[in-house]
Amino acid sequence: MSDLRWVIWLIPTLPLLGAVATLLLARGERAAGMIATAAAGLSFAATLVAVWVLQTMPAEAARIESVAWTWIDVASFRVSFGLLFDRLTAVMALLITGVGSLIHVYSLGYMRGDSRPERFFAYLNLFVAAMLLLVMADNLVLLFLGWEGVGLCSFLLIGHYFDRRSVAPGIVPAEAAVKAFVVNRIGDAAFLLAIMLIFSRLGSVSFLPNATLGTPGYLERAAELAFVDVQLGPLGSIGVLTAIGLLMLIGVCGKSAQLPLSTWLPDAMAGPTPVSALIHAATMVTAGVYLIVRNHVVFSAAPTAASWVVGVGAVTALLAALSAATQFDLKRVLAYSTISQLGYMVVAAGMGAYAASMFHLLTHGLFKALLFLAAGALIHALHDVQDMRRMGGLRQHLPFTFRVYVVGALALAGIFPLAGFWSKDEIIAHAWFTAQNPAIALMLIASAAVTAFYMGRQVALIFYGQPREAHAAAHDPHGSMRWPLVVLAVGAAIGGVLNLPGVHWLSSWLEPTLAEPEAVYSVGKAVMAVVVTAIAVGGGYLGWWLYAHVVDGRIVPGKTDPALYYLGDIWRGAELGWGLDWLYDRAIVRPYRQCSAFLGRVVDGEALDGLLVGGTGRTFVALARGVRAVQSGHARRGLAAFLLGVVALLAALLAMTMR
Amino acid sequence: MIPTYYYVALGAIMFAIGVIGVLVRRNVLVTFMSVEMMLNAANLVLVAFAFARQDILGQVIVFFVIVVAAAEVAVGLALLMAIFRTRQTTNVDDMTLLKG
Predict the structure, then answer these.
(1) What ipTM describes this predicted complex?
(2) What's this model's pTM, rounded to 2 decimal places?
């Protein structure tokens, strides 16, 4: 059905048109929500059609390429404005438009009574368009346009409550937005350098050969550079692909909130909860993982870069999980949890388990969106209370929210047979058996235990124990806020079928694109799965038992966690995100502010304004001081001087003619 | 016939009176009258020379001077009225806004 190829252009265009229409035409919350939701839903429908078209094609050539025009044409630097819809893109696009549509529907209810609904929905649609452009771009420069686009929308939506001085755990929305933007710039700069390096060494930024422009594809030529070095002057030399991989890794660290650039994501929770669910859990933060998977050829040929990817991911997974275990803010737990789970995906992508990485990306998109939306339902029910110390015993009041939250929590904790079990286990098994890297595998298992612990803790703090505050009026969500939760809960529960061992639809679907050997299933892996699940169940039960029964009575709003007494500084360190914020504040933010203050006050104020501009003025004033006395302003004196002058002139003329 | 230098002498005297009037008197109105005196002294000399040299051009210039003087008086008196309305004075020494 090649005549339906144009459908792929509808996928990113519809949300873009939706954003424009919402901004220009929509007046009022209902109109804005309806236009935006319709655009997202139609985009999902277009994606389904495109996937169906893709599915009818032979597996080896299963991709739709379409070049609209030549975007940049400078000498040999030719960039097309073209889309590439292959099987990897299809997976991402389905997640973005599918979960995106559900979150649009949820937002209809969640944003009721908001002061700026048109803006919210327009930005949400713009985000979906930019994210789709990111995953559908057929070259790195266009991908970068989407990459920056989602960053911009993230900034705009984190700052949605820009007029509030502070929201839930004491974050200033405007500052959080700027922080997210600035931290992402660091990663983006490195990513841009990677693009430049790719172009300068491989002569193209297109992923695949582009027939319209006649440019080669850089991915198939990457392997040629495996042993070529790039000179760094006095610093020595480094393999080209290693340099590209490491620069991309920095970009990934920024966008996917990996250490050490992870600090923006917990603060990004200042945005509305649907935004946290869509952008900061399900889609945008996975862009980094997508980037690695898309460039898997580069990372496969650069083992040094790949091992850095694995290291960063594993450390992030563990440290962020520990941080999540210590938070009291409902959404901050989920934010750190997202960082941790992204760490899993990054580890998998670094180890070459691309299908496992994409699998975890998908299931995480489902259950984390579910958890965030359920958290949004809680926040709604409790009238903007996000501090878990002020909750407790809510399962009687909110039975529906309780049920979907537990489904999400079990899926995240990796309990059989929910979605997280299958995807997380595949990554751990790959680390242990295929990559033969027990250290990484043990870190991931430890993270899995901590993950289960903090979800048990969170469920206990919110729903079990004694009510620490009266929430008599709290009620479950209904209408548009209810059924997206049901859909996502079903997805989180049965999402594992996508890639069941032995069936692995996702792996074989992605196989032509990723050229990854099929995973082998052995008794060892099954034993491992049982052990990991047992550990997760133990961790989860410990968290639940500890907070629902042991320390239940000692949790007081505003007071520290009772567990602090057992773990002391480790707990405190985890709570503060391992001091990264403190470090950046001392090492970068404060020196920068002081430097700006110095430049503003001394260089600009004193030197430029004071000495150069003011000095010039003062010099002329001083020079004019003697001459000023002549200008007395007396007409008669002036005339007298004029007369004397004329007489003197005439006398001189007379004297000259007489001679 | 009256010699030309009589006229020229009279013109010079009138001009000197005008100059002294401008320099000495403080009332703006009198300053104007003195300026008119100087202009008319110049006119007198122009007419006298035109007559002596039998050249019509000198008399033509006089008409120009008269027209310009009339215009000058019209503008000057308007200014004077405006100044008097705002400052309640006709004393030229009180008008020192152009002091540097």
Answers:
(1) 0.84
(2) 0.80
